[in-house]
Amino acid sequence: MALPYTIQIREMNDESGHYFYVTVAELDGCQSHGDTIEEAYESIREAMEGYLSVKLEFGDPIPEPAGSEEYSGKFNLRVPKTLHRQLVERAAAENVSLNQYCLYKLSR
Question: Which residues are in coiled coils (predicted)?
Fold first, then answer.
């Protein structure tokens, strides 16, 4: 439980209403939800305890957390020339670098 697992929280709105859906990236099927972020986080911690207990009980391997050393923060992406031009123009209009503009767009 003390290992740095990747907890992902997403705000959801559907026919059931508004809630926060939470998963653990490395623990397949470990998921929960809550009405608030705090409730969702508490709920996923309980789900993790149950998930890990069952794995230990049956002697199943427990996935390790994804280490940040596995990712350099860089990747190459090929795009059509027209899209490249549009991105450069929009970055210039915002007075930011192409890298900053693409990072902003990807993070949204």
Answer: none
